[in-house]
Fold this sequence. Notes:
- With 166 residues, the chain is mostly helical.
- It folds into two domains: 1-72, Alpha Horseshoe (Serine Threonine Protein Phosphatase 5, Tetratricopeptide repeat), CATH 1.25.40; 77-166, Serine Threonine Protein Phosphatase 5, Tetratricopeptide repeat.
- 70% of the residues lie in helices and 0% in strands.
- The chain has nine helices and no strands.
- Helix 2 runs antiparallel to helix 3 (41-53), helix 4 (57-69) packs antiparallel against helix 5 (75-90) and helix 6 packs antiparallel against helix 7 (113-126).
- The chain starts with a helix and ends in an 8-residue tail after the last helix.
Amino acid sequence: MATEAWEARAAALWDRLDDMDEDVFVQAMTDLAAECGPDDPVALFEVGGAHDSTGRTEAAVGYYERAVAAGLSGVRRRRVSIQMASSLRELGRPERALALIDAEKGRGSDEYDGALAMCEALTLAKLGRDREGLSVALIALALHLPRYQRSTVNYARGLVEEDPVG
């Protein structure tokens, strides 16, 4: 089971990612995860992330799915949805990615809402639904504007509404 000390070691490993050979990094994360057992959801998530961050996207999805099945919870549950949806999008499965995003949006709201919206916007663009993706991105951005929030949201919604004249 992932302990506080294990978490600190995983964080330190992530801090060294850019200075390590990718194969060495993935192996180090895999070795660290092995200390937690084969079905530890946090360890599976971290190994999935290691694969994802080094371009091993297909393998990452498998680890993410196992982490969810093993009961991944908390903030990592939200993050796994974002990361897995992004991976699925890049693997040519944007419909599945969008379904995952929609399900995650139904789980509530937190500090990852913007990241979820970013992933949704990119997925919609991958599906050829650029105006809808832009609308999602602008609505997410509106929350961070010092002014013009209401008008930004209205314009963003207008991007996807049917043109009453046309």
